[in-house]
Amino acid sequence: MVSERQQLNDVVQFMNDFLAGAYPQRSALGPGALQKNFFKSKSITSGMIDVSNLEAVSTKTGNLTVDGNVTVGTGGAIKSGLTDYSTDLSNKGYWLGLVAGVPKLLIGGRLTSTTPRIDWDGSALEIIGSIKAESGYLKSLNVYGTLTLGNSTTDGAIAAGKTSYASTTSGFYFDYNSGGSPRVNIGSATAYIQWSGTGLTVKGTINADAGYLDTLSISGTLSFSGAGKINLPGGGSIQSGALDINSATLASVTVDGQMVVGNEILVGTSGYIHSGATSYSSGTGWILEYNGGTPRFRVGTATSGSNYLAFDGTNIEMRGKLKWGATGANYLDSTSSHWELTAGAGIQFLEFRNGSASRYSMVAATYDTVASSGYDGTAIYVQTTGATNNPFLSAYTFNTTGWATIGVGSTYIRAERVGATDSAYIYINGTEYATFTGSIVKLAQKVNFAGVTGVGLGGMTLQGYMPAQLNGVNVWFPYYA
Known about the structure:
mainly beta; nine-stranded antiparallel beta sheet; five-stranded antiparallel beta sheet; about 5% helix
């Protein structure tokens, strides 16, 4: 049985609850309505409350099922974890409500600038984190971080018009390509840009104001219009089996194959064309340079070597042999102080003539095959032709036979050797005046000079007269034998 004290306490509690509104009475809201003034705070406890319309300043429930609408006042919000849309920088959660009449949503948090979140500020959606979607549509998308499509085992793609990388339909197609080589195809069947994962293929025209290329392969034609150009900084190079350039300015150019120039090559005043040679005087090869107004050229060894041909701006220099003829057997040898003429049968000669060929000198070498010409051997000949009584000089030798002649017209002195015999002759106006053979001197005979009959002298007979001149007077000296 309950004690009297307990009963008294229950009565007091009932009175307090009644006064606090724990037992609602009929109110101005009408039948079936409960007004807040008739409830004690936190006094309704139930496993389920089934109402048609619930209006509460604050409600704490377990599971809440709403068949109609949940209406939040202009100053209210649906939230968990977050205390405010913009000022809570310490917590994570979600917040949905109105801020100055603008609906806003925050899921996640603002602990840092990279804290994952979905943020709708009333006009723009910001997503920090990853988006994964099987399908969807976007009218406009700004991505400030990374947009990831697919993964190492699943292909992802962005496409419009095209349905695959190989499609020739106009449009674009970007895919991850699970083989590990992402690809791009933009364009149509006749004009496109394709990145296969290893190389870029462009079909069409490229217009560029500036840019950089590591390696560019062109199967068609690369054309430049206006002031178009290619800059190759550092170690950049152009490699082509055939390169057609209308105009170019090159700091340096290396040609591994053949370069055909249809018009001209212009080299700066400090530039040069070369191969092998590193300067005018150094390196085996060749070089042609403007040299600041004194053009120079060299081909062969360095100038310190022994085989080169060079023009130093003033003189032509040669080291080695200058060869000519079908077999190159004829040559000039710059290593010695002589010229060599070597060839087969026939007359080999070095001849110098003036423009009208009226004056010439010749050095000749002949062989047995032309012995009938009378010049079987080696000859030197200097003469002025086209007039009488011209000076001349000639010499000839073959084995132990030879002669040398100097004179004017038909007046000359000749020395010769035939076999082991030496001879000398003096001709005046074609007449032999003296002959020297061995130790004998033979003078031309002159008989009955000036009507004088020869007179014997000491048993000798007058043989002739030797002409001479004494003090400008012509005299004749008789000689006897």
